[in-house]
Amino acid sequence: MKDIRTQFTALSDTTNLVYLDSAATALVPEIVLDAMSLYYKKYPANVHRGLYDMSIEATQQYEGARKSVAQFIGASPDEVVFTSGTTQGINMLAVALKKQLTSDDVIVLTRYEHHANLIPWQQLASEVGCELRFIDLILTGDEKYTVDMESARTCIDAQVKVVAYSAASHVLGTIAPIQEIQHLAKAVGAITVIDAAQAIAHMPLNVKEIDCDFLVFSGHKLYGPTGVGVLYGKKEHLEKLAPVSFGGGMVETVSYTSATWAKGPAKFEPGTPSIAAVIGLGAAVKFITSVGWKSICAHEKDIIQYAQDVLGNDTHIEVLGPTHDTDRIAVFSFCVSGIHAHDVAEICNRSHVAVRAGHHCAIPLLKYIGKESVVRASCGIYTSREDIERLATALTEAKRIFSVT
Questions:
Q1: Which residues are catalytic?
Q2: 330-357: per-residue pLDDT in tens?
Q3: Is the pTM of this model over 0.90?
Q4: How many structural domains does the chain have?
């Protein structure tokens, strides 16, 4: 993957940088920047409105990105709704599904959810008066930090109407047993919502094979721009859902007293969209496809194993997450004995090693596993073994400064 690094300006222009914060936002390759720049230089018009050449070209590129994204996740283009990101997509669903729930119903989440896939459901449950349940994690033994399927079987019963869960944890790296959870949810007729924000750049996801009802993710997690995301929904579900935002472009008819809605994704995309960002997202999924999942997964497996070998042998470092590389993506959090996570991150930064420290928008999870703050290193296709070695060197310096021996 060494040649890949040259395609990322942030790495080629700042050759001393070790970027280990891809879970927050991945770096953007030049091919994506070029696609967005071309829009502003050659056809910077609005979409779906003009009958002149620039607008037609902009619309074709915008809808072409929708087709690329749909192909990337195994969906149909009319099942792909563009959003501002994962957070908006989940909030849209929580609002839209409100009418389908009663106080007798149950919503099921996992213990490792990001705040974005927790708080919207909290608010929905509070408004409707329904129950929230949480699938536990295994916290001991060889399967530590994996999803507890006994807990899942207990949580998901006939009362459950929605099962919303992350395909992979942004803190622990844990990959959810997607097919097993889907099977349990479908057996009781529950709607499934998958937060793929973290998984989308690390593993292939085919919505038809998974048979999920909804799936959401953000462009900036998979080497695309910020400000754009995707809400996938089965066509039959999107047809039933009412829009939650209103304005131009999402209507079929309008009078002074009423309106009817457009068909397909347009119903959920009012106003002028983030056109350049959508085009950039289309370029990003093509970039990932060109690299190939086989190469990406093999590279990340090697990085995970190498990181575990390098950091796992240090008795002062506790690496969180599953120990088996088949159970995790290339995201791992850790604690250094006697040193606060923020201090670790600051000392790493002195060596130009970028990691994140804190609660990672997962305060309930950290309390659940008995931590207040952790350091997270999250990898991308540009991460090298040398990056992991430089992280280890920076951690050695942190231990020296704080006299951890």
A1: 361
A2: 999 999 999 999 999 999 999 999 999 9
A3: yes
A4: 2
